[in-house]
Each structure stands twice: as structure tokens, then as C-alpha cells.
Amino acid sequence: MKKIISIAASICFAVILLHSCSSSNTTNVKTTPEMEQFMKALDGKYQSVTDAIIKFAVVPDLNTADMDMKDLRDPVIISASQSDSSTCYTIKTNDGAKDCQHELCWKAGKIISITDKTPE
Fold it and tell me: Smaller CB count within 10 Å for the chain: N or C?
């Protein structure tokens, strides 16, 4: 019986751990499929961040606010706002040393701006 309880506890812990490591949305705003794909790309490697920005940027020379120079992981949407023309998400990530925050504004499935919102 102790072995069954131990296995069950281990499974529960693994499920909780896996759930906490996935990207999440802590707002009530519906996330676009493009934003979900972007969030999933933030896997702790700067090249993945760069590739995601390139894939979704409205223009090739979009100002990235140096977001593409960081090994970002563990993305979480902490706020979102919607206007008639765009939807902006503020996300929290971690670069291995500290938490970072960026605001990404989207229009028609493309990122139209990135702003570094990391508190100093």
C-alpha cells in the first residue's frame, strides 16, 4: 500500500511540475494562435526567440528591444489589452539570471511592436 501511495504521489508531483513549466495565460483575454505559437517558442535559447520574432514580425527590421539577444524561457502572460486595431500582451520570462518583461503588440497575426517593460 505504501508503494502505491508513493507512486501516486510521484505522479502527482510530476504533473504539477510539468504544468508549472508550460507557458500560461494569467489574463482573461483570449490568446491568438500566433501568440500561443510565439510563447511556445521561448525555450531558453536566444536563437528560438530570434526565429519566433522573424516568423511573426510585421516587417523584417522590427525593433526587438533586444528581446532576441536573450535566452528567454518560462513565458507567462501577465496582462493584456485590446484596442480596435491591436492586441498587446505583457509577458514575463526568465533569461537565466532574472525575470524579464516585454510587451508585444499584434495586429492581423503579426507583431507590430516590442517594448522592454522589465522593472529596473
Answer: C
